[in-house]
Amino acid sequence: MEFAELIKTPRVDNVVLHRPFYPAVEGTLCLTGHHLILSSRQDNTEELWLLHSNIDAIDKRFVGSLGTVIIKCKDFRIIQLDIPGMEECLNIASSIEALSTLDSITLMYPFFYRPMFEVIEDGWHSFLPEQEFKLYSSATSQWRLSYVNKEFAVCPTYPPIVIVPESIDDETLRKVATFRHGGRFPVLSYYHQKSKRVIMRSGQPLTGTNGRRCKEDEKLINATLRAGSRGYIIDTRSLNVAQQARAKGGGFEQEAHYPQWRRIHKSIERYHILQESLIKLVEACNDQTHNMDRWLSKLEASNWLTHIKEILTAACLVAQCIDREEASVLIHGTEGTDSTLQVTSLAQIILEPRSRTIRGFEALIEREWLQAGHPFQQRCAQSAYCNTKQKWEAPVFLLFLDCVWQILRQFPCSFEFNENFLIMLFEHAYASQFGTFLGNSESERCKLKLQQKTMSLWSWVNQPSKLSKYTNPLFEANNLVIWPSVAPQSLLLWEGIFLRWNRSSKYLDEAYEEMVNIIEYNKELQAKVNILRRQLAELETEDEMQESP
Amino acid sequence: MEHIRTTKVEQVKLLDRFATNNKSLTGTLYLTATHLLFIDSLQKETWILHHHIASVEKLALTTSGCPLVIQCKNFRIVHFIVPRERDCHDIYNSLLQLSKQAKYEDLYAFSYNPKQNDSERLQGWQLIDLAEEYKRMGVPNSHWELSDANQEYKICETYPRELYVPWTAKKTVIVGSSKFRSKGRFPVLSYYHQDKKAAICRCSQPLSGFSARCMEDERLLEAISKANPVNCYMYVVDTRPKLNAMANRAAGKGYENEDNYSSIRFQFVGIENIHVMRSSLQKLLEVNGTKGLSVNDFYSGLESSGWLRHIKAVMDAAIFLARAIMVENASVLVHCSDGWDRTSQVCSLGSLLLDSYYRTIRGFMVLIEKDWISFGHKFSERCGHLDGDPKEVSPVFTQFLECVWHLTEQFPQAFEFNEAFLLQIHEHIHSCQFGNFLGNCQKEREELKFWRNMYHQFDQTLHPRQSVFNIIMNMNEQNKQLEKDIKDLESKIKQRKNKQTDDILTKELLHSVHPESPTLKTSLCFKEQTRLPVNDSLRTIEGSSPADNRYSEYAEEFSKSEPAVVSLEYGVARMTC
Known about the structure:
The complex is a heterodimer of chains A (549) and B (577).
Chain A: H1 2-6, E1 11-19, E2 22-31, E3 35-39, E4 46-51, E5 55-63, E6 66-73, E7 78-84, H2 86-100, H3 129-137, E8 143-146, E9 162-165, H4 170-179, E10 187-192, E11 197-201, H5 215-222, E12 231-235, H6 239-247, E13 261-265, H7 272-286, H8 292-302, H9 304-323, E14 329-332, H10 339-351, H11 358-371, H12 376-379, H13 396-410, H14 419-430, H15 442-448, H16 450-453, H17 457-461, H18 464-470, H19 495-498, H20 506-547
Parallel strand pairs in A: 11-14, 12-13, 12-14
Antiparallel strand pairs in A: 1-2, 1-7, 2-3, 3-4, 5-6, 6-7, 8-9, 10-11
Chain B: E1 8-15, E2 24-31, E3 35-40, E4 45-49, E5 53-58, E6 66-72, E7 77-82, H1 85-98, H2 118-127, H3 130-137, E8 144-147, E9 163-166, H4 171-179, E10 188-193, E11 198-203, H5 215-226, E12 234-238, H6 242-250, E13 264-268, H7 274-289, H8 295-305, H9 307-326, E14 331-335, H10 342-354, H11 361-374, H12 379-382, H13 396-410, H14 419-424, H15 452-455, H16 468-510, H17 519-525, H18 550-559, H19 569-576
Parallel strand pairs in B: 11-14, 12-13, 12-14
Antiparallel strand pairs in B: 1-2, 1-7, 2-3, 3-4, 5-6, 6-7, 8-9, 10-11
Helix pairs in contact in B: 4-5, 7-8, 9-10, 9-13, 10-11, 10-13, 18-19
Pfam families (chain A): Myotub-related, PH-GRAM_MTMR6-like
Protein name (chain A): Myotubularin-related protein 9
Keywords (chain A): Acetylation, Cell membrane, Cell projection, Coiled coil, Cytoplasm, Endoplasmic reticulum, Membrane
């Protein structure tokens, strides 16, 4: 076993664990290939059971022979272990460091995890593209499934099956792919049944400095428009950035070549700017010493809520185009794997009631994030405590979840899931026993044989016993478009994520429980009233029959 | 009535506060003796009570008419455009005079209380018996007694008649002490903690100057300290910043010298004065009123207004009090300058943290009556009821309510009342049960939030579109109704059954038992009652209907011939807010 080489000291006694909200506890620390376990050996319970992959950074400190290891997790929790003996402490620290930064994906826990529950529905097959397409094909014949990317030859980051306009053949798609960044030719993201308009997404066009054009590309996207109607192209970069991209062979659609389309630039930040924003925000939230003004200015300086506002505004704009303007929209940024997906998926949350249900939301994540090729492995490898700056880190998915939370807060009755569901998704995106968020694209997942070798998150989540924790008791389906407010006064810091380990949620949890109780009690009473009414009606008819035989 | 020259103006436009392209509603403006009323073309009514009006402003004439901006004390801001300047001027003048006309009785109906039944409410307040409240706290007892020193308001005009002081303090001591305190406000009991035998006392600043002493005052403080048998020292909390207190010394006032008083521990907590608070709120409102606000502007505005810093200072002081009593068993004497603003805030919040009774609806009213009204908080001047000195206006009570709101946010189950109650100090609203509130040792975190519902109460689109709280309250009400229904139904069924058995008995005597089964018919005639609707209006989503009039305005935005860069930032923000 390779792990044995990495584990220098598998077991240390008399380790003291400090963690948020609990008193310090002494116990035995064990290191396994994938977990850090601390047990006080009382009642046979483990006080700590931490996945190595959840560890973002560690610090060591020594006072005499007593060593202290501070473990900073990707879910922003900070725990401290006091380990007697300098050598043990150093061994533990270096072992954790090695185990939490394994190079090979196939050594990760999902490949070793064996489920303790019975799989009722295999999550790997819960959201197949064919099934999703059926929802559309009943409403329109303008679109078809294309298998052009079957061997991932046309576009390495697309899934094997994509939805394209009926009138465009696979040969044209291959040509368009050469004109779009990363081969990401325009594909259908969402079909709005009410207005019969669509959201499409793609990579940037490779116009370059000399304004290259591609007739097939123009044909493809024009095929989605009706005669005489106009569409919108939402570029998630500022005009400046888009113009600069031309120097590197990228670019944007020229009005002259796309006369039926109007281009709008909505700048959404990307990459390290987002990562720095997250680092600053988490630092501000963890700082216990500052006063009110420092807190506000740090919150402001993090720019986190500005990013939230930008993303939500862009999503609202897209929803406006579809629902109010009745115009189709094509969205792209540079690669079309980050801000593009934030916007397309949030626009669907606003427009589509189905995506506000638990299954619908899972399908949305499967379709718009996993299949659409958001590079989870690159983006979520490290979190806010990471010291080594890597180019590809960015909390793109967390920002998306935060935006959903903002809408959920404004429309608390319109979502079938609750805040815990979003927090759970955040945790699993960064560290998980399931294979769902491994890999950067479908092709990588196929190569890793995740379907055969790992368990899907959806298999676990969709068990009725698990779902109850994530179900919103206030949910009442509504078919309306929900327009969120994006005013700064309406946007809040997501305490459930960022202050989770600093401020006890005990009182809020109690209030939540009370709310659930009131709702449960209400249901009970209504059932009882119905039974009694029926009884009374029965008795009344009995009486009538006896009176008039 | 003599102030009203024009009672009705037609074709008045009401502007949307956050719209960028002057989107407006047209309607008719009415002026009555008590209210300003605007009815728009959709028959939606906007009522504004005259003495809610904080300021009326006439802006420069525009092509569409004469703009009139009315700012209310409940943070509503309305922007009318009156077509004719003469009408506008008449209304402006009338409002100027009407808004400053409140009588003394309106003192109690402070600005959050806009309903018409002022007199009823007045009675309600008077029902609260403070003697009863002190009895509940456990005074008089062997350490504290009722003093008749201020029976005729002779010693201190701004104090109530009934005052509680340590029994060891003789009248001469009290009189002596009152001469040494600003406005004669000598140390008296505000809250007594029965278990800890510790007290919160309040007074005004001593007239100590740089070196003056007063034996009686020293003796009174000692008596207060001794009245707590558990602890040998007491805290004296000066709620002012140290600099302000020192400046007061030059004017012959100041603060206690620790050397002159045996067994006191002196402490500043640094809450700013009413003028700082007033301008802080002003800044906050300016930020909130900005169109197309960016996130960074909002937070830097929030920060530079200092509003949350001030709120935190008040909270910190209250926590200090609660801690001194719960953890150290020590009595506390609180004062500021005159002992009616910051002292009221801190004493009442401290009591609220310590005593769950004050977190009930009745208790909260008692608390306001005790620490604010009876101890002479100048509601009239602070809220600008009468046409007085604008420098005396200050949001002291607003801050107190906001502090309470922050607590309700953090401990939602600990309060019987809710945000709506705070917003309007309104009618009784049933709330969650009382939780196991541990306010005494809870340290506040820094992350205070912006109280959107207070400062944007009337900007509906900035709110969450569905209120969980209202739904739950509604459900709670419905549960009660259902419980009643069940009782009714059960008794009816019982009656029926009794009747039936009687019938059957009599019938059995006459015929054999009826052969037909009635169930078949029953199932046909019975239609199951569907789930009762939980007041659907609570779940509707404002601004989400396709008929939303904001659409057209957005369409203009789209159809404009525009440069290559299009900023629709405001478009979406406006569409939504």
